[in-house]
Structures are given as structure tokens and as C-alpha cells.
Amino acid sequence: MFHDLKHTPDDRDPHFQQALQEVPGIVPPAEIVRLPKIHRKTVISADDAVKGILAGDRVALARAITLVESRAPAHREAAATVLRQCLPFSGKSVRVGITGVPGAGKSTFIEYFGKQLCESGHKLAVLAVDPSSAVSGGSVLGDKTRMEELSRLPNAFIRPSPAGNALGGVAAKTREAMLLCEAAGFDIIFIETVGVGQSEVSVRTMTDFFLLLQIAGAGDELQGLKKGVIEMADAIAVTKADGDNLRRAQVASGEYGRILHYLTPFTPGWTPKALACSALDGSGLTDIWTLIQGFCAQLRQEGIFESRRREQNTQWFHTLIREAVLNRFFENAFVQRNLPELENAVADGSVPVAEAIAQLLDGGTLRAGH
């Protein structure tokens, strides 16, 4: 009797109508309300995206970020239009990069910290970059699950994105997503990075304040994370400073404070600080926000804040130039025709690598001077 269950019954069938009438509690066919089919738009239009973003619509913001992240050539013009029209409304947030060693509790820290900021009237956007699989290219994208309470707040927006092949621990389109969030009225932007160690440096080129999360008892405190990342930090927060771990966290923060004293500050005129905090009881989080506010106020007063933003925009410009040239290279018809053959020749050792590259550049009229 169950062999036809895979087929949806036709409610015009007389046997089906009779069955509905005979079963208590079932709405008879005459009372069935037929709902129109909903056709979801796969891609939001540029006009709808801009209107929604400027109105603070989080759904429109999410779809606009998807449009900007798209690699499809057909979406480039619409994405460029959205960014161009939103750009005048961006730049008014405090941008905070948050990184740290695995196990430092970045997501837990951000959720508790973010809830405090939202409850005090701020609008917070979290751009959480998940590590991508080197095998499949996919990512876990679990930050909305880990930040469940924060994601339910009306003045919070969480956007997980796969890091993909982007270097520096941030997604390729994180900058654009940040600008769209600012245009939507979010006055604080957190960028939670992958936490991959010394390669995690590009976050420094897109944020105002760089916060490094560390844990106590991880061995030599200086070796807990690569020295290069410590040198870029505007502050170090030793997490999990509660319970039996409180004393160890306080000692570790003191050691980091002494380390920072001997390093050249990344931000001119600013002395990096080390603090202890807990996302379990909230201790130390108010001190961190006060520190960030003091940092921004000092940099604005000294004219460093705006000059750094201008420098970051220039760096972004050159990064996108390199990306555009690389895309143009691989989209070139000559390159697409000859690349597989030259790859095989290089793999076999019959053609030197430099010669193969020269052939592709010459044939694709991409040689220097053309």
C-alpha cells in the first residue's frame, strides 16, 4: 500500500477528495487555500541591494555580500554598482581585527563582547572568516552556530565567509563586505580571522585596531604565536581569566606586557597593552572597549587615523590591480588554449618554466610593455 508514497496525490482525484472528507480533522478540498508558488531570486539587483542596505535591511545586506563575493563575470557590473553607490556612506565605523591561537576562544569572546556592545546601543557586524579545506575547498561556516545568542540580536549581523585561497587569514572580499556593513549603519566591525600564525598579516591592512587573543599556559609566551603577529598587535588579551585559571592568565598578561615594552609599536605613538579577560563572567571586556576607544581618539587627534585609512585604501587598490591582472590573464583565449599543453611540457621537463611563462605572456599580448 506504500508503493505510491513517492508521488504527490492529486487533490482533484475523487478518491483523494473522499478520503479527505472521511478523515476527522482534515480540511476538505473546497477549503484548501492554494498559495502562489514563490520564485526566489538567486541574485539581488544592484538597485534593490543599495536601497535595502541604506535602509538597514540585514537580508538585503547578506544578499549584496553574496553578490560581491560571486566569481561569476555576469555579476561583476552589478557588484561594482553596489559598491560605488554605497561607498559614500561607508567609513564611519571602528574596525577591529581579532585573531589568536587555536583554542583562544575567539568566537566565545566575540559573542560575549558583542552582546555587551549591542546592549549599550551599538550596531555590530562580525565578518567571521572560516578556514577552507585544502582538499574540497569548502568551509565549516560554523560561526553563526557558535554565536547563537549574538546572531539573534536585531542590531547584530554575522557573516561567515570561507577564506578560500586568500592569504593573510581573511576572505578575498572581506574589505567589500566591510564597506557594505558600514553603509548599512553598523558602527563597529569585527573581523575574526582564521588564526593561522605568521601569514595572518593582511588583517592589519584593513582594520584600525588589531587585537590578539592569547591563552595562558601554552609554553613560552613569546613563542605562543609568531613574533611577527605580536609586533602588529595594538593590544593582547589573555582569555579565560576566570576560576582556577585566573592567576595564570594574570601572570601571562604581565609577561606579554613586558614583551610588548621591548618591541617597536606598529602604530606610531601608541604603546600596546596586555590585559586579562574572561568571556565567562565578562571581566576585563569593558577595559578592552575603553582601550579601543582611547586608541581611536588618540589617533584621530594626532591625524594618524585618517592617514592610515588612506594608506589602507591605496594598498587595497594595488591588491585589486594584481587580482584583476591575474583574472585577465587566465581569461585570455590564447592562455586558455595553450595552458594545458604547456603545463604538461613543464611537468615532463621538456620546456623550462621561464620559457613556458614567456610563451603565454607573449601569445596573450600580456608581456611587459604591451
Q: Can you walk through the features of this model?
A:
The structure is a single chain. With 370 residues, this protein is an alpha/beta fold. The protein has two domains: 90-302, Rossmann fold; 312-363, no CATH class. It has helices spanning 14-22, 46-54, 58-69, 76-86, 106-119, 143-146, 148-151, 174-183, 227-232, 246-261, 285-301, 304-331, 333-348, 353-363, and strands at residues 94-100, 124-130, 156-162, 188-192, 209-214, 235-238, 273-276. It has a seven-stranded parallel beta sheet with strand order 3-2-4-1-5-6-7, sandwiched between helices. β5 (209-214), α9 and β6 (235-238) form a beta-alpha-beta unit. The longest helix has 28 residues, at 304-331. It is globular and about 65 Å long.
Structural class: alpha/beta
- The number of E-state strands comes to 7
Mean pLDDT: 81
- The CATH topology name of the largest domain reads Rossmann fold
Strand order of the largest sheet: 3-2-4-1-5-6-7
The CATH architecture name of the largest domain reads 3-Layer(aba) Sandwich
